[in-house]
Amino acid sequence: MPHRTRTAHDPVHHPLFARFYARVAPALDERAGVRAHRRELVAGLSGRVIEIGAGAGLNFAHYPGTVSEVVAIEPERLLRRLAVEAAVRAGVPVDVVPGAAEALPVKSEAFDAAVVSLVLCSVRDVRRSLAELRRVLKPGGELRFYEHGVARGRVPAQVQRALDRTVWPVLFGGCHTARDPLAAIRAAGFEQVTCRRLLVPGGRIPMPHAPHVLGSARRPADG
User: Fold this and answer.
1) What is the pTM of this model?
2) Domains of the chain, with CATH numbers?
3) Which comes out higher in pLDDT, residue 145 or 11?
């Protein structure tokens, strides 16, 4: 299928994490059942779709044929190169584009749907990123999300916040474990927010980013 890539200044540069992610993510998808969640994330979409933080393009293979085009935004150079390779194998046209979630390089109200997948944890500004997603969606357009966030228990949440203040974002490409994606999506003005909570196994050692949510929301039809 047709695909393109564009070159520009990289808004994000995490080369060590990108290499680590590129190596472990496909195996983790298989072991932890994440691949099935990715498939569910994009099931039933149609028209033009924008995907933010596309990473190595692990979602591309799951887009249904009813999608006419995917514009995939990925700021990290190595991951973007891998996304271009994944775009070649995709069953729908994918345009891989450099850019930051806080300033999307696309026109307003240009997309029928938007997809975020394990990315709101690492954007620099969640509020601005969601405002941009709302801007580029058509009125009534759908936001699909698969994210991890703050744990429900007091002690696990305290551990997450402690990690976020110290080593975790440095080691894992800006990832923050204690963010609340559902609260942020609602605060950004999206409506009809529905989701189900998932617990993705991390092996023998509990992972601080394990609580996941998979769901959808909509930009209001009147604004």
Assistant:
1) 0.83
2) 3-218 (3.40.50.150)
3) 145
